[in-house]
Amino acid sequence: MNRNQIIGGAVITALVVLLFFFNPVEMRWLPPCLFHQLTGWSCPGCGATRAVHQLLHGEWRLALHCNAMVVVLLPVAVVGWRWRNRPGVGWALLTAVLVFGIIRNVPVEPFTLLKP
């Protein structure tokens, strides 16, 4: 492991510990989503912090309600980190994020269930 990997791991660990002990709904110092403030739409990341908090507490259903994409892609990202340099993986993830961002704003059932 190189120095950057150690620092990155330490930062991620600290953030995970912070999210475990502090509910993002109660932490008023977290910045709001600028995209949501400007457009009124939910970006693909809206609810991600709350989803991770719920996942850390074993609340899968609440996490899915906060941000289903995070619940689905977080394990893929953790397990598949070695795939990051393979051609097409980045484009596939970007496409998934963009599609999720679009369909979660469609004002028709069942897409409205994807809003945080």
Oligomer: single chain
Proportion of residues in β-strands: under 5%
Radius of gyration: 15 Å
The poorly predicted ranges are: none
| String of helices and strands | HHHHHH
* Strand count: 0
Structural class: mainly alpha
Tally of individual domains = 1
Mean pLDDT, as a whole number?
89
Silhouette: globular
- Main sheet attributes: strand count, strand direction, barrel closure: none
**Helical element count?**
6
Percent range of helical residues: 55-70%
Give the N-to-C terminal Cα separation.
37 Å
Q: What does this protein structure show overall?
A:
The chain has 116 residues and is mostly helical. The chain has helices at residues 3-21, 34-39, 48-56, 60-66, 68-79, 89-103. Helix 4 packs across helix 5. The mean pLDDT is 89.
Kindly list the characteristics that best describe this protein.
single chain, 116 residues, mainly alpha, 6 helices, globular
